[in-house]
Fold each of these.
Amino acid sequence: MISQAAGTMMNKNTALLMKIAKLALPALIGAVLLSGCRPFLAEIPDGFAASGNHARLIIYSPDGFKAEIKTEKNSPRKKISFWAEALKTQLVSEGYPLIDERPFSSVNLDGIAFTWLMPLGNSYYKYLTAVSVKGKTIYIIEASAEKELFDKYENEIGIIISSVSAR
């Protein structure tokens, strides 16, 4: 009788573990696939979600903030000073008002981050573009949201930028 009760309890526990595994396995596989072949690693702040493919990572807040990390070929092969100046010149010529420019350091990358402020209707939007170069690869980090929302996630933007590492 005791062994029958123990067997029933073990079957219930096994069934519960199988249910948990079925729920957790897709998330685990997704996390592995999201980071598996990507040429960089980055931290996803608590409470944020992520999607992407082997070449880019998109990070979302529940209320609409979005950041993206991606890479491009360093072609023609130039240093960070060239690409940062090219980016700045292009966006300024397109009418983006530059409000901040500063160097940044992450795990194994150094670069320059630009912040732009754009009016749209009755609102203002902030747009961050950070760029770094390592060897044959340009690393680009972009973040954008309505100004108030962008400012709300200033700490998380710092976490994302400082956590990016080239593989």
Amino acid sequence: MERDVPKQLHLCQMFFYSPISNTILSWADPDDRQIEGLTSFSYWQDIARTLEQGCFDAVFLADTQVARSEYEGQPDAALKYGVVWPAHDPVPIAAVMASATEHLGIAITQSTAGTAPYVAMRKLSTLDCLSHGRVAWNIVTGGFAAEHFAVGVGTAPDTETRYAQADEYVAICKQLWDSVPADAILADRSTGIFADPSKIKRVDFEGSYLRCKAVSAALPSPQGYPVLVMAGASGPGVSFAAHHAEVVFANQPTVEAMRAVQAKFDAAAAEIGREEPIRILFGVQVIVADDREGAQRIADRLAAKVPLEASLARLSSSIGIDLSTFDPDEPFTPTQGRGSQGHLASYTSRIDGRQPTLREVAGRVAISSGAPQVFGSPQEVADQLEQLWRDTGCHGFNIYSPIVPAGIDRFVKDVVPLLQEKGIFRRRYEGRNLRENIVGD
């Protein structure tokens, strides 16, 4: 079906809590401050305030729990070049950023591998209550083999099994969130009655993979429960999103690929009779400079730093294939891996009518995670974002800034006002919580 373009563009800002925000070796750029941010509360608080000044929906804290070790069967390349390593826990930073802001949402990646649903629900709910309803949960199913070994649950199951387990995981969390309605909390000082037990449900879940018998330990938040988001685009991932996700983060290299992915999600939603659309935010790497030539120089400077070994290490872990024995100058055409099947499909898609080589794919993933680059002067960037938004009918964009925080500062200062002047981006937050801000037009 043809999607209607939303009335308003939505923006999130993507990070890893690691030496790189997205681009391999960006930490080595003289203008980047991400390494300092690994040990600084104020770094993250300042970024949060800037994003809120720019009326962003949320910051998206991506996460990889472990050093990536698919390449050559060991993590040395990831360790050597700081490829999403070290990978600190994003939850404390979510609290730090929320404490410095009043409206900015915080999307936290939490894997369903190795942590009980009750524990994850309690953690997310606590942050959602503290932030007055500004938390989203990016649901990932643990596609990295090293992650499963690290948390002691053995080898990673196949994609179908991972999503079947995740379906039960989310079902448990939803039942726990629904178990304590807002009107069950009385907190009546005159009577000494805190809650009405008759209104609180006991969860008794018995699934094929998971079990839970409990009452939620958290207060209901102003938005009921965190906004549910995900980033999977494989067959099982699309089906999972149709059942659970309110927002999807996706990377696709071209307008045609973006439209095709949206059509997949629309078809999956229609198949189960879902009436609410699946709102998709596509990843785009944004580089703003005084002019297009200046932005190109930044892009070239970043690309020149990245060794092929580091690029292949990242790509290997993303798709679950050891690429150390592949010829980098041959067309890249693997058909399966144990990692993200959605990423694999995106990376191997044809560009300009031809199959890209492994070297080209690895380089693209190293710089922008396979997302398209939008760069130039502030006006050129604003115009490109508007055109891409209108051409795809997507909900908005997940912004990747290769140099932080300078790239974020420049975008908010110079590009956001142009988007506002176009009438396609908010000038102030209208919603009372994240769900109202990010789900609405």
Amino acid sequence: MNELFISKAYHSVIGDIAVLSSVSGIRRIIIAEKSLPIFKTGDPFNAINQIASYFESHLKTFNLPIDIEVTDFTRKVLQETSKIPYGFTSSYGEIAHSINNPRAFRAVGGALNRNPVPIIIPCHRVLAKNSLGGFALGFDIKINLLELEGADLNSI
């Protein structure tokens, strides 16, 4: 069985954040969870320090291995989403087009809603055509993250 680790919590402006990792990579970002199962405490990839650096506006790109179990479609969506630079945004339609499935913009939204490693894979940077769109962690957190990165929200 793959050993799991959970980091100590980082206290951010969007809530307490912890990182669940396997020996192979980051499995899940946990935000403001009330209770967690017991895991071996640790952060083998130093992910919490990278997250803290991101919230302090020092880190623009994460350098962490990812170890998630998702469908092929979701993997394609998350890989494209990972390419969106800090401070910039894309749309569900643009992501759908870039994975050669231009009519799948709603499915792109669904895949992003199931992103197990938000912030590291910046699904908050993906917007609807004429609005901010949704975000699994909540609208306020999406705005908070986009403002932290200095994204231009005036054109929405």
Amino acid sequence: MRKTVLGGIAAALLATGAATGVLVGSAAAESEPASVPGGDTKAGDTESVPSRGVVRSWDLDRMQGVIDSDDVPGGCHVTFAAVAVDGFPALPQGQQVEFEWYRLDQPESGLAYECSRAWPAGQQPYVEPRAFRSRAWTIHADGSTEEFTGQSSEPVPAAARLTGHTTGTVRMWNDEEGWGVIDSAQTPGGCWAHYSNIVGHGFRTVTVGAAVTLDWEQVTDQDGYRYRATRIEQHRN
């Protein structure tokens, strides 16, 4: 199975694709490089702050990841639209990068910092030309990518999305970062889980060793796991 990604500066999620990923599209416009503030800029200012860090993780399914740096405690959220490279807009795990960030007043990703632009360390950030352009890549099930350059009138077929509903046991949970791993017979190797998918209100967490009911989906890669929880409900004693 595979998915196709259309890349550009101004990108938007169009549709959820198969178990291997999503279909995203872009309409490029006149683009400008992100602003680089002066040396006296501090976190909390409206302009982006330049830093250097290492990619903690990259989710090919959601085309987003996390960058670690001493300047952004807990990590900085980054999406493919902020990846300033002339090619497939992704950042491999463990890659050293230069990036620009700003602090969020109301974090939505569980992280307090958002990346406005990122590129491989030691290189110059790529700036999209001032003209409409779209590019497409095929992402194979093993995570490899291939740029699509041919002309075809046939649409890319959507593969069946693999999902399930089961019960499992919480293997580990990190309240500070808001994620953990759930074990079940249907999700061999573990199912990655995020606090935002826990049923409830206010502060949401689960207890290590507790039994839970979960809905899950298969993904290409989620921080090293092939399954991700979409709904979690902890059993009540």
